Amino acid sequence: MALKNKVKRFFSDFRIKHKISIDDPHTEKEVWHMYLSPANIFSAVLALVIILLAVVTIIVAFTPVMDFLPGYQGNKTRNVLIENHLKLDSLEKSLEKWNEYYINLVRIMDGLPAYPTDNFISDSLLDSIPYVNRSIEDSLLRNQLEGDGDYGLSKNSGTETVSGTLSFPPPVKGVVMGKFDPESEMYGINIATAENQPVISILDGTVIVSAWTPNSGNIIFISHPGNMVSGYLFNARSIKKVGDRINAGDVIAFTGNADENDSDTGFIQFQLWNNGAAVDPENYIIF
């Protein structure tokens, strides 16, 4: 009961107004006065705190004032994050295009048609390209290049250029088990060898493909001088990447298992291309 009376007295006193006055010290007359209660003071302080919080929140949210504080990045951090996000998005699109390019290049090397892509010139751009009529000089040049004359592109091409002029070391020591047969889409030869044997490059060149495919496993294609390309398929692992410069005899990969039940047997497929046409490696390499 005493506690209840104390609470009632507190709230009653909380609302009682007190006089605050200012007197002139010379005349001792009252100059100014005001009646305030504790409740009035509490309400004024609370309102002032709320107004200050609102002002600070508005300043922080809608002005760059926080950017000037040491150790706080504010909008700078958000701008950097947005810029990095845009760069990552652009990089992802570039990687997708490169992946498309490599997959199609591998399929072409395997003798398969390339996947269609959406990276074609739009019709509006094609319409803006002016049409140039064929000139007499252009027709004469075409006849020279497409014919069988001294300047014909078909002259001394294909296996005829390679045959009798070049010979190469074998890419791996082994026995030829599968023969070259383009009609059955066999564009190279299968070589049986031991497992984990080094595979070497037959000539100096540059790696243009180093990838893994579901049909051919780890593959490497190397571009050589004279429009020649050598291909090494079904490797257990490759140790070279695209763009690497290769010397003749450098180890580029290692053979894997031809048969899961026989751990001592290895296998690779070797292809040789000249001017874009597959040739029989046994015509130029003694295995």
Task: Characterize the structure shown.
The chain contains 6 helices and 12 strands. The longest helix is centred in the N-terminal third of the chain and has 35 residues, at 75-109. The model is unreliable at 119-123 and 154-165 (pLDDT under 50). With 287 residues, the chain is α+β, with helices and mostly antiparallel strands. Strands 3, 4, 5, 6, 7, 8, 9, 10, 11 and 12 form a 10-stranded antiparallel β-sheet that branches. The protein has a two-stranded antiparallel sheet with strand order 1-2. 33% of the residues lie in helices and 29% in strands. The chain has helices at residues 2-14, 38-62, 75-109, 123-128, 136-146, 159-162, and strands spanning 18-23, 30-36, 175-178, 188-194, 198-200, 205-213, 217-224, 228-238, 245-246, 251-259, 262-274, 277-279.
In short:
The protein has six helices and twelve strands. The chain is of the alpha+beta class and 287 residues long.
What are the key terms here?
287 residues; alpha+beta; 10-stranded antiparallel β-sheet; two-stranded antiparallel ribbon; 12 strands; elongated
Summarize the topology.
Blueprint: H1 2-14, E1 18-23, E2 30-36, H2 38-62, H3 75-109, H4 123-128, H5 136-146, H6 159-162, E3 175-178, E4 188-194, E5 198-200, E6 205-213, E7 217-224, E8 228-238, E9 245-246, E10 251-259, E11 262-274, E12 277-279
Antiparallel strand pairs: 1-2, 3-4, 4-11, 5-10, 6-7, 6-9, 7-8, 8-10, 8-11, 10-11, 11-12
